[in-house]
Amino acid sequence: TQLLEQSPQFLSIQEGENLTVYCNSSSVFSSLQWYRQEPGEGPVLLVTVVTGGEVKKLKRLTFQFGDARKDSSLHITAAQPGDTGLYLCAGATDTGANSKLTFGKGITLSVRP
Amino acid sequence: NAGVTQTPKFQVLKTGQSMTLQCAQDMNHNSMYWYRQDPGMGLRLIYYSASEGTTDKGEVPNGYNVSRLNKREFSLRLESAAPSQTSVYFCASTPIGTVPNQPQHFGDGTRLSIL
């Protein structure tokens, strides 16, 4: 079983602050996805990273895939209350019809106005 | 654009009762998944169906059964509910397996309490 460790588990910050959260594993992933989940709803995909060292930006969110494809980070610049939610990373070790995602336990982010 | 629809949204059962959670997707996806989400545990895969006519166990299949009724529908059955099965259950679908840049589309979940 491939384990994805997310840290920190909880984070409470003031609006306007910057933050970085992490998703780490001892396994190599063919791709890694980040999802955000709001209360009462299912997770929604933010980004997929595929290539080692890849950096993707989504407005104020910057995602990086580690060179060895074992870890990833999410950096949020000037956090807003609308960024509040549960952030989940999920890795795939292969592709194809029978492939599956392994999810981390998530990071609960609270951004105070 | 309904996406993935789960029913019911909430359910309370007594220990030993049975019930079926329903999931339907209207995106013509081949692969469907059932997860449970517990506080501090993230999403854990119960069963999945790579394509119509196939089902396979995930990480935590004990106490559950599934049926891929057709391409659209994938149901999860609890034959004899136990308090440990109190959780939020999510159904998800993808066009085909796990392909980079293809997200899993999730329903809004079924909140199940077993007393």
How confident overall, as mean pLDDT of chain A? 93
SS-based structural class of chain A? mainly beta
Tertiary shape of chain B: globular
Low-pLDDT runs of 5+ residues of chain B are: none
Distance between the termini of chain A: 40 Å
- Number of DSSP strand runs of chain A: 11
Tell me, briefly, the overall form of chain A: globular
SSE run of chain B: EEEEEEEEEEE
Q: Structural class, judged by helices and strands of chain B? A: mainly beta
- Bin the helical content of chain A: under 10%
Span between termini of chain B: 35 Å
Compute the number of strand runs of chain B.
Answer: 11
Helix content of chain B: under 10%
Characterize the structure shown:
The complex is a heterodimer of chains A (113) and B (115). Chain A is an all-beta fold. In chain A, 0% of the residues lie in helices and 52% in strands. Chain A is built from no helices and eleven strands. Chain A has strands spanning 5-7, 10-14, 19-24, 31-37, 44-49, 55-58, 61-65, 71-76, 85-92, 101-103, 107-112. In chain A, strands 2, 4, 5, 9, 10 and 11 form a six-stranded mixed sheet that branches. A five-stranded antiparallel sheet of chain A has the order 1-3-8-7-6, with no helix packed on it. In chain A, 37% of the residues are buried. The mean pLDDT of chain A is 93. Chain B has 115 residues and is an all-beta fold. In chain B, the strands form two sheets. In chain B, strands 2, 4, 5, 6, 9, 10 and 11 form a seven-stranded mixed sheet that branches. A four-stranded antiparallel sheet of chain B has the order 1-3-8-7, with no helix packed on it. In chain B, a hairpin with a 6-residue loop joins strand 5 (42-49) and strand 6. Classes of the chains: A mainly beta (113), B mainly beta (115). Chains A and B meet through strand 4, strand 5 and strand 9 of A and strand 4 and strand 5 of B.
